[in-house]
Amino acid sequence: xxxxxxxxxxxxxxxxxxxxxxxxxxxxxxxxxxxxxxxxxxxxxxxxxxxxxxxxxxxxxxxxxxxxxxxxxxxxxxxxxxxxxxxxxxxxxxxxxxxxxxxxxxxxxxxxxxxxxxxxxxxxxxxxxxxxxxxx
Length: 136
What we know:
This protein is an alpha/beta fold. It contains 2 helices and 6 strands. It has a 6-stranded mixed beta sheet with strand order 1-2-4-3-5-6. Helix 1 links the parallel strand 1 (7-10) and strand 2 (33-42). Helix 1 packs across helix 2 (46-64).
């Protein structure tokens, strides 16, 4: 069954954006799952990239999976893997994509998409977030 995965690693660099839609469609339909998304991101745009990533995943949900209306995309962590170039890091983002009431990811906030900051606080992603310079 195609929609049966609860964890998918997307490691193609400089961006794995071309695989996001198929990865979302492969997540478990009942509980969603985790996407581990690798990218090369400028150091000063890491937070902007995380919000753009979550908004992009939410847009994929709305476009390709209209029945998944109560699904969210939440970036819970970004880890620097290594330096790629001056002021550009290879990073991996841990993003939960699934129903707001999934046992895999519970938030007190009732937002559909956003980023958990380094203090553990949920920050909702604005509707009109612009792509970072690293976006393809």
